Amino acid sequence: MEAFAETARLGNVSRAAEILNLTQPALTARLQGLERDLEVELFVRGARGMTLTDAGRALLPYAQRVLAQVSEGRKAIQELRTGKVGELLIGAAPAVSTYFLPGVLKTYLTTHRDVRLGVRTGHTEEVLEMVLRREVDVGVGRPIRHPDIELIPVFDDELVLVASRAHPFARRGKVRLQELAADRLILFDRASSYYELTSSLLRQAGVVPESVIELDNVEAAKKMVIEGLGVALLPRMALLAELRARSLRPVRLSGAPPVRRPIVAIRRADAGPAMGPVADFLAMLGTRA
């Protein structure tokens, strides 16, 4: 189409070939190929150059629109490569979207103001489905196995035993895991991997808490602990403000290994190399590791 439009504009094959950096025979072959494909003659060849036939005049505006769209497409790809425009759709697990993602996105948007941003939340299994259905560009959650995805490490979160400032555990600063059996344990969100991590730790140690409060979110669990209603193992990323304010006190567990949960970015394995907004977002996640 480019060969046709340029020849129509200039009315001369030699000059059109020069503009397009082609040899005259190569340009002529392209024009002849287009005419064969359309089964019409597009030009009248004369001593004064190339003149459009009726068919050529009918085709020209369509060729011009195609070339304009190709030019716009090239511009869009170039802008995408800069990472400053485009779209970024993220799926995130609840704790990630509440305690980790806001700070990352605040920094991201300082240099990506024109990127259209969308965030959807769900447990990691739901985030996986969002990625597989191409509803989001990238997911952030715990590692989950699937043959059609790739996992990109972001950081390791840690479960921290916390108590209120007035709790005996807070004054001691360190307790044995078995001592949790005599206290009230506050758990959150049965569908969360953190719930299973906590339950598994206690089962392996043979610890059965005297009583348990089960809640559906981390914020409620923190409030219960602050009010002295029990102790809880909570993700460190959810505790930064309370630990800084000392409204919750960390308590070391002696005789128990650290309980960590990797946080990863989730991408379709066939998505190809990340570009633009997605590439910049993944790079920013890497700096938070």
Summarize the structure.
The protein has eleven helices and twelve strands. The radius of gyration is 31 Å and the shape is rod-shaped.
The secondary-structure element order is: HHHEEHEHEHEEHEEHEHEHEEH
Instruction: Please outline the major beta sheet.
Output: 8 strands, mixed
Number of helices, counting only DSSP H or I runs of 4 residues or more: 11
CATH architecture of the largest domain, by name, is 3-Layer(aba) Sandwich
CATH fold-level topology of the largest domain: D-Maltodextrin-Binding Protein, domain 2
| Poorly predicted runs | none
Structural Rg: 31 Å
What class, by secondary structure content?
alpha/beta
Kindly state the number of beta strands: 12
Instruction: Identify the quaternary structure here.
Output: single chain
Any idea of the CATH class of the largest domain?
Alpha Beta
